[in-house]
Amino acid sequence: MPIRSLAGAVVLRNIPFTIDEKKVLREMRIPKAGSLAELDSAALSRDIKKAIDLAYSLIQGQACYRTFRITEVRPDTIVIEGSGTLLAGSNMVKLLADCDCATLMACHIGGALPARVEALSAENLAEAFYLERVGTWMADYMADQVDRVVESEIVKNGYERTFRYACGYGDWALSHQPELLRLVEAEKIGLKAMPESHIMIPRMAVSAVIGWKRKEAA
Amino acid sequence: MTGHFLERVRREVLLLDGSMGALLQNRGLPAGYAPDLWNLENPAAIEAVHREYVDAGSDVILTNTFGASRLRLAEYGAEGRLAEINRAAVEIARRAAGTRAYVAGDIGPLGTTLAPFGELPFDDAVAIFAEQARALAQAGADLIVIETMFDLLELRAALIGARDAAPNLPLVASMTFTTDGLTDTGTDPETAAAALETLADVIAVNCSTGPDAMTAVVEKMARTTRRPIGVQPNAGLPVQREGRTVFPLSAEEVAAFGTGFVEAGATLVGGCCGTTPDYIRLLRKTIGGRPASPRAVPGGVKITSRMKTVRIGPGFPFLKIGEKINPTGKKAFAEAIREGRMDMIVAEARKQYEHGAHALDVNVGVPMTPEAENMARAVTAVQNIVDLPLVIDSANVDALEAGLKVYPGRALVNSVNAEEEKLERVLPLVKRYGASVLGLVSGDEIPEKAADRLRNAEKILKRALGMGIALDQIVFDVLALPVSAMQDGSRETIETVRLVGRELGAATSAGVSNVSFGLPNRPLIHNTFLALAIGAGLDAGIVNPYDEGMHRAVEGASLFSGRDPGCRRFIEIHQAKAEERKKPAAEAGTPKSTRDRIFEAVVEGERESIQALVRQGLAEGLDPFAVFLDAMTPAIRHLGELFGARKKFIPHLIAAAETMRKGVEILSPLMESAGIVEKKGTIVMATVKGDVHDIGKNICCLMLRNYGFAVIDLGKNVPCEAILDAAAKHRADLIGLSALMTTTMMQMKIVRDAVKEKGLPYKIMIGGAVTTPEFAREIGVDGHGKDVGDVTGVAERLVEEARGAGKR
After folding, report:
1. How far apart are CA A151 and CA B183, in angstroms?
2. Among A177, B390, B646, B657, which residue has the fewest nearby CB atoms (within 10 Å)?
3. Is A56 in CB contact (< 8 Å) with chain B?
4. Separation in Å, CA of B612 to nearest CA in chain A
5. Number of inter-chain CB pairs under 8 A, A vs B
6. For residue B341, what is the nearest residue in chain A, using CA coordinates?
7. Could you give the dihedral angle defined by the CA atoms of residues B136, B141, B143 and B148, in that order, rounded to the nearest 10 degrees?
8. Chain B: nearest CA to A87, how far in angstroms?
9. Are the C-beta atoms of residues B504 and B537 closer than 8 Å to each other?
């Protein structure tokens, strides 16, 4: 089975999605309730439903990912064919030391939802907040969708996946964001990093790495 | 090889070959080198592999052309040699096969994703596949196998391209499923079979998993379609050993599944990655030449999305097709389409899905708009958010085709009728894209009599069958006419349902809302018509899913029309409703005062009602200060206590805060005109330089204002100097700083250091997702708010400290 993401960045647009009420409630830190119907406040239930309905018309999931062969494992860095500096940090080395390849990925939910949050912030903060939380969850959702596709490619080629390690977590500094986005050709999905802060624009985006771990090593 | 491939594969088991790549590597093909180039560079090696398979008993061998499309060859700079490579591959295979095996031209995926989910336009993909298929056909391949496909849309493009290039060759369409029984893009085996049966001659599964997971896939496909079924498992799921990919199952282990495959319905069996001639030899011994197993396949017209199949016909649940994505008579909806906006379409799609529609009609016909472009966008937008099959509805053939090109499933095209021009333009589209079609039983005019409508149906059917469109691709629309204007014609509509069902054995549908034009109480008319028509045998309707009465009419009528065996569905639905009714109603209790209702509105976050309640309270003589201090403030404090006790959560706080803000909008002018409103303290709030996330900070500002603070909100991305200037200008007690990123949180320290260096009197509190109490201590600020529920308490403490220390 040829590894299609080794040849170049794979771009996904119009990623199909559903918005799970339970996940949205968890994102809002409301424990226990499994659905909006279980909330004790009719007004809150109605408002969150409104945010979910609005989100359906605003979200446009897009992603790109690319796989690189690992060429060297150094004490503080994993060297891949495209970069000797990107995959840095002791956590990274621990994650990828037994891997033959690493898939870099980036995804976002489009610019319309963050823009609507911005606009709503001036008029109605509650609505802005609910929509923001839906969008935040959905950025993770999109990452999960890419994750599923990458995992399938990994398994088909006789490897096991590592967990998804996002840029900016642990000791993988956010300053690596621009290089990561360059390597996955994120400009194809309109995703870029702001200078200095390295915040991704559009907001509500995820960038990460997944390792291809040798099964015998797992 | 004797006999036509398709005739044989319908009645007996034929053996395919196994993997090619590993055997070529054993003969010296370097890792990473394109095997397709060896058709020219090392034909002897390719021929030797083919011979091994023919000797082992393969009835069909696949050419070494899996990656010999223009797009894949371009990776090696060999796209200019496409015809040469494919021709050589067929010739090599033919030399090895002689008269002992069929030569199948092999086509693999393009290595990219098709629009609208990826970048490659559908038409380009069709052309690329056609180019390779043409080369294979011209070189003399006996059939074409398109394999290892995980995207239904790409496979449909490949089949259309191959059919264009090689109209007379049998086509085998093979998808790859993961261990969870779905393709990578979420298609289940039934849906793959239903979507592909109108385009391919054989439907198959190959690669990705071992044989154990494939038996269930074969079973599901064989229960869905009458097409022959193929299967080519890997020799198990691969593992890496000493830097090599190894497939763990032996030939014996794979061959042990052979009988199961045949019993499940497969008649074309071979191997994929990791299998060798030994595997085929054993399979030959086990199942070679066996007769095809009998299969029971239910009838009905199938339509599918990428992920779901529904059937239309006698015995199946009545199919409710949502009618709401249609601009006719809807000004705002039409305006949205005119502006190129898809938001209203998406909203209607979700709402109809939630109201129980089984499929959705998509019509975007607005005069003076680019309908084809809008149809493609609408179909894309709708299938992004619901998995229901779509009915692509337009009088414009270009719009129909644009919708079909971005739709991975088997759509229902709405519609064709018996007019010559329509037949000539719409049916070829249905055939080319493998869709199903709604056939209106009208011609140049709408006939009143059922017998005349039947004649139109017969004309459509005859023409369709002549083009290779099967009866189970056609649903006849019996023409629901307005009963107010055409009472006799409406009776004939019911009769047409009976007649088309009885005489043609075809499925029927109707656009239900048409029946009630010009009459009051339209829902009653729709649902009465539905009950009568379902009783006569109507299989589907384009209906209003928001009408609960419609659902009830369908449920009831289904009991009397063989669509709900054992009344199970009816009982299930109505038992659930009975349970719902048993739940106690809200307590009536004694009437509450307006003050209490304001208190409750704030606690419950009733933003819509608060201003009316406040006005009512004022009209009843309540003092504005009393409303603020005795109703709203206690409410927000009570909610804070509930939050502390984990009985209410942040969204409740925010809803309440926004509700209070709306109430205070009414009160503020009155309180200000009545005298000075004392503020608890002054706080300058800002999201620090470099950071653009400020909704959390904005909510904190709202909470603080509701608690009686004067808040100066400087917004986001605010430099240190601007914060200090504002604090000086407004004589602030407290500076509140927010940051969401590790890269921006150090700006907080810069502000803190500047305050200390200049000996300024302000207290500083910080907050935001990445901040912690430890970080606050580390950088030497005065307080940390962990969330919006915490911020008012921290602010009250710090302002008190600041004022107590006499710093102002």
Report:
1. 13
2. B646
3. yes
4. 16
5. 174
6. A57
7. -50
8. 18
9. no
Residue % of chain B over a pLDDT of 70: 98
For chain A, first and last CA: distance in Å? Answer: 21
Using a CB–CB cutoff of 8 Å, tell me whether B119 touches chain A.
yes
Q: Which of B641, B674, B707 is the last residue of a domain?
A: B674
Mean pLDDT of B140-156: 97
Please give the C-alpha separations between residue B452 and each of A47, B410, B414, B474, B489, in angstroms, as whole numbers.
54, 30, 21, 18, 11
Which A residues 61-120 touch B at CB under 8 Å? 61, 100, 117
Q: Is the Cβ of A58 closer than 8 Å to some Cβ of chain B?
A: yes
- B768 within some domain: yes
pLDDT 10s digits, A48-59: 999 999 999 999
Does A203 contact B693 at a Cβ distance shorter than 8 Å? yes
> Residue type at A29?
R
Mean pLDDT over residues B195-213, rounded? 95
Cα separation, B363 vs B329, in Å, equals 12
Residue B321 falls within a domain, yes or no? yes
State in Å, rounded, how far the first CA of chain B is from the last one: 101
| B299-338 residues touching A, CB cutoff 8 A | 306
The shortest C-alpha distance from A84 to chain B (Å) reads: 22
Nearest to A167 by CA among A186, A152, A148: A186
B670-700 confidence digits (pLDDT tens): 887 876 567 889 999 999 998 887 788 888 9
B383 CB near a chain A CB, below 8 Å?
yes
Q: CATH number of the domain at A4-217, please? A: 3.40.109.40
Judge contact between B206 and B245, C-beta under 8 A: no
Q: Are residues B269 and B311 in the same domain?
A: no
**B2 confidence band (pLDDT: 50, 70, 90):** low
Report pLDDT for B647.
86
pLDDT, tens digit, 9 for 90 and up, residues B334-360: 999 999 999 999 999 999 999 999 999
pLDDT in tens, A188-202: 999 999 988 899 999
pLDDT single digits (tens) B707-757: 889 999 999 999 999 999 999 999 999 999 999 888 889 999 999 999 999
pLDDT score of A212 more than 90: yes
What's the structural domain count of chain B?
Answer: 4
- Do both B283 and B397 map to the same domain? no
Domain of B492? 301-564
Inform me whether the C-beta atom of residue B746 falls under 8 Å from chain A C-beta atoms.
no
Q: Which of B624, B652, B674 lies at the terminal end of a domain, its last residue?
A: B674
Supply the CATH number for residue B165's domain: 3.20.20.330
Does some domain include residue B93?
A: yes
**Contact B119/A215, CB-based, under 8 Å?**
no
How close B547 gets to chain A, by Cα (Å)?
20
pTM: 0.90
> How far is B733 from chain A, CA to nearest CA, in Å?
25
